Amino acid sequence: MPDVLIYADTVRSGELRHELPLTIPDPFLYAERAGVRHVVVGSMEVPRLRGLGLELHTPEEFGSDELRRSGMSRLEIDAEVAVRAVKAIGVTSAVVPAGFPLLLADRLRAAGVELRPEHGLFVERRRVKSEAELAGIRRAQAAAEAGMTAARELLRRAVANGSGLEVEGEPLTSERIKTAVSQAFVAAGASAEDFVVSHGPQSAIGHHLGEGQIRAGEPVVIDLWPRDNESSCCADMTRTYVVGDVPEELAEWHRLCREALERVVAETRAGVTGRSLFDATCDLFEAAGYPTQRTKPDGEPLEEGFFHSLGHGVGLDVHEQPVLGLSGHEELRAGEVLAVEPGLYRPGFGGCRLEDLLVVTDDGAERLTHYPYDLVP
Q1: What Rg, from alpha-carbon coordinates, does the chain have?
Q2: Which CATH code of 3.90.230.10, 3.40.710.10, 2.20.130.10, 3.40.50.150 fits the domain covering 131-367?
Q3: By the number of CB atoms within 10 A of the CB, which of 25, 160, 166, 308 ranks highest?
Q4: pLDDT tens-digit profile of 73-127?
Q5: Edge-to-edge, what's the strand order for the sheet holding 220-224?
Q6: Helix, strand, coil percentages in the chain from 3-state DSSP, rounded to 5
Q7: What is the pTM of this model?
Q8: CA nearest to 127, candidates 24, 252, 14
Q9: Of 236, 373, 368, 221, residue with least CA distance to 310
């Protein structure tokens, strides 16, 4: 097993949060040397890290007071302390995440430490979720469903006023729904920087976040990915709605997306590949006459039909390995969490997407999403 170095905080780094399931907002050094885990962190964080099987060090052990008196900047002090710590711990060659800081990498290499970015090693560590991570994902999913309910209730109460939908005399906008969803997240112990509440032609653009007043008869795509505050783990779910008369085209898309989702749930288990699940969905959509990434001409982007992958892993980041798409050749493993999101789109009109979370098991899949699929809210 190679030695490992990570220099990050546990808020933005999934690699480090996986190793230390605590919120530490400032960057610090994590090192694995011959199987022993070391942390160099400020004294205010040390009490929370005791009992986690770590060798704990503070910057003072590596001369931070002396460096501070020399007039060095905080950035220079942190880099020098990290270099001294790595040398003292005995690391001479290590693998690092792809996002390892360049300044520190340069300093360590100048000091004779070999660094090898190996994205795959850190992906492998995180693919199968721990019990604590699964519990966090379940809480995040409960928050996502609470947020979806808040959105759905507003849509249910909406009436057409000529210019669009309104609720209690005020325009019903993407922004108004987002406020209600965010409040539901907070009440459920979760948060999200943003999410999708798109409508009409906006919903034909996969990650258009949505804006403006919603109209009767147009698709409303709501894609939520809250993060559980306790564990920092994510969920991901999508539903599509329409207020008023449902266009036939949208009803057909919704039926096909629901069928695709059910096929994937039935076929998911450890040992199958993400590509095989993607292919099964493409088979369904292509048979109904819609283009997919498999049928598009090489070198040309696809802007209608099924133009994205079937989904992705979810955990400490909302988009993780494995891939459920053209490049999803790896076999799925029991304990992985997948977001499965079939969708169909037409520019100028809109789109339809449904998305559920699954946990892969040895002989099937456990559905983490328990929420209605009704097209009319």
Answers
A1: 24
A2: 3.90.230.10
A3: 166
A4: 999 999 999 999 999 999 999 999 999 999 999 999 999 999 999 999 999 999 9
A5: 196-199, 220-224, 237-241
A6: 35, 25, 40
A7: 0.92
A8: 14
A9: 236
